[in-house]
C-alpha cells in the first residue's frame, strides 16, 4: 500500500512538475530576486559599499566576515592594480597611524613602522602612481581622533564639550570634500582597560562611547546632498571588541589583527567599490552566479536548440561539435 501511494504520488508530481515547469519556476525565482534587489537599491540607496562599514562577525579567530558579502584576500599586485593613480590621505592620532601602515603594507609589505610619529608620513609607489600622505587633491580621506584628546585633558567633560565644538566646525569642510572625494570618519575602538598604563587610565570605554556618539550625531547633520556625506567607519569597533584583549598596551590593536582582519579583508574592498565605481554586489558570489545563470540560460534558449534525438536524426548538426572537441 505504501509503495502504491509513493508511486501514485510520484506520478502526480511528475504530472504537474515537469522539466519545462521547473525551468519556468527557476527563471521566475531569478526575476523575482532581481526585482527585489532593484527595489532594495531604489529605496535604501545605491551606495551599497556602506554596508561593509557597519556590520559583520568573526568566522573563527582571524577571519572577519561582513554581513551579506563574500570577501577576498587581495595580493599586493592586485592592490596596486586597483589603486593605480589614486591619492589617499590619513588624518588622526596613533590609531589612524596604525591604519595608515596597515594600508601601505598592502602595497609594499617591506615598509617598517618607524620614523615620524607626530607629523606627516609620506608614502609613494611610483610604479603604480599611488600616493598616501599629504596630497593636494586626494581621492580618499580617512579621518578619526579622540583618545589623544581624552588623554591630554585627563578625560574631563570640558574636553568633550570642546571636541563637539571642533567636530561641528570641521563637519561642513568634510562634507564639502565629500562632494569630490570619499571621506571616512573612523569611530574610536574600545580599549582593554586592565592593560592600560597609568598615563592612559583616563581613556575609558565610557569616554570613548561619548566621543563616538558626538561624532556620529554631528557629522552629516547639516548635509542635504546625499553625495556630500561623510561615511562613518564603525565596523572596526566590532573587530576591536574581539581582538583588543590581545593588545600589548590595551589601546592599539595587535598587528596581526589589524593587518589580517581590518584592512586585508574589509577596507580594501570598500576602496575597490570607490575606485572601480561599482557596488560590492559585483564582487559578491550570489549575484555573480545569478548574472551568469541568466546569460547561460539565454544562450541555451536561443534558436536553434539541439537535443540528442534531433542530433541523431540529422548528422549535419554534429558537424559544429567536431570543431569544439579538442584533439588529444
General description of the model:
The protein is of the alpha/beta class and 328 residues long. Helices cover 50% and strands 10% of the residues. It has helices at residues 2-16, 19-44, 76-82, 94-107, 147-152, 157-180, 205-218, 235-243, 255-275, 285-301, 308-313, 319-324; strands at residues 56-59, 63-66, 87-92, 123-125, 130-132, 140-144, 182-186, 231-233. The chain has a six-stranded mixed sheet with strand order 4-5-3-6-7-8. A hairpin with a 4-residue loop joins strand 4 and strand 5 (130-132). Residues 1-10, 260-266 and 324-328 have low confidence and may be disordered.
Number of helices: 12
What is the string of SSEs from the N terminus onward?
Answer: HHEEHEHEEEHHEHEHHHHH
Fraction in helix:
40-55%
Give me the count of strands: 8
Structural class, by secondary structure, is alpha/beta
Which features characterize this protein?
328 residues, six-stranded mixed beta sheet, two-stranded antiparallel ribbon, 12 helices, elongated, disordered N terminus
How would you briefly describe this protein structure?
The protein has 328 residues and is an alpha/beta fold. It has twelve helices and eight strands. The longest helix has 26 residues, at 19-44.
Amino acid at each position: 500500500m505504501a509503495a502504491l501511494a509513493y508511486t501514485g504520488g510520484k506520478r502526480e508530481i511528475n504530472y504537474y512538475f515537469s522539466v519545462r515547469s521547473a525551468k519556468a519556476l527557476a527563471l521566475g525565482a531569478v526575476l523575482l530576486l532581481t526585482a527585489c534587489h532593484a527595489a532594495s537599491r531604489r529605496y535604501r540607496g545605491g551606495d551599497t559599499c556602506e554596508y561593509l562599514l557597519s556590520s559583520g562577525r568573526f568566522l573563527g579567530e582571524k577571519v572577519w566576515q561582513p554581513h551579506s558579502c563574500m570577501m577576498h584576500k587581495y595580493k599586493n599586485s592586485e592592490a596596486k592594480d586597483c589603486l593605480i593613480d589614486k591619492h589617499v590621505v590619513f588624518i588622526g592620532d596613533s590609531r589612524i597611524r596604525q591604519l595608515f601602515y596597515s594600508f601601505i603594507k598592502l602595497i609594499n609589505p617591506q615598509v617598517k613602522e618607524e620614523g615620524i610619529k607626530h607629523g606627516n608620513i609620506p608614502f609613494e609607489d611610483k610604479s603604480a602612481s599611488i600616493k598616501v600622505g599629504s596630497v593636494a587633491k586626494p581621492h580618499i580621506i580617512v579621518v578619526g581622533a579622540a583618545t589623544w584628546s581624552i588623554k591630554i585633558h585627563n578625560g574631563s567633560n570640558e574636553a568633550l564639550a570642546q571636541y563637539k565644538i571642533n567636530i561641528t566646525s570641521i563637519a561642513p569642510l568634510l562634507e564639502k570634500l565629500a562632494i569630490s572625494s570619499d571621506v571616512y570618519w573612523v569611530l574610536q575602538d574600545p580599549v582593554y582597560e586592565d592593560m592600560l598604563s597609568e598615563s592612559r587610565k583616563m581613556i575609558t570605554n565610557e569616554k570613548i562611547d561619548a566621543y563616538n556618539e558626538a561624532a556620529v550625531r554631528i557629522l552629516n547633520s547639516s548635509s542635504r546632498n546625499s553625495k556630500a556625506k561623510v561615511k562613518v567607519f564603525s565596523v572596526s569597533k566590532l573587530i576591536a571588541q574581539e581582538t583588543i584583549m590581545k593588545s600589548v598596551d590595551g589601546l592599539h590593536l595587535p598587528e596581526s589583527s589589524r593587518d589580517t582582519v581590518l584592512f586585508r579583508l574589509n577596507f580594501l574592498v570598500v576602496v575597490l567599490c570607490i575606485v572601480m565605481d561599482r557596488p560590492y554586489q559585483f564582487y559578491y558570489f550570489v549575484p555573480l552566479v545569478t548574472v551568469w545563470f541568466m546569460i547561460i540560460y539565454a544562450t541555451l534558449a536561443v534558436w536553434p536548440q539541439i537535443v540528442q534525438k534531433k542530433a541523431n536524426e540529422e548528422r549535419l548538426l554534429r558537424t559544429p561539435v567536431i570543431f569544439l572537441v579538442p584533439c588529444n
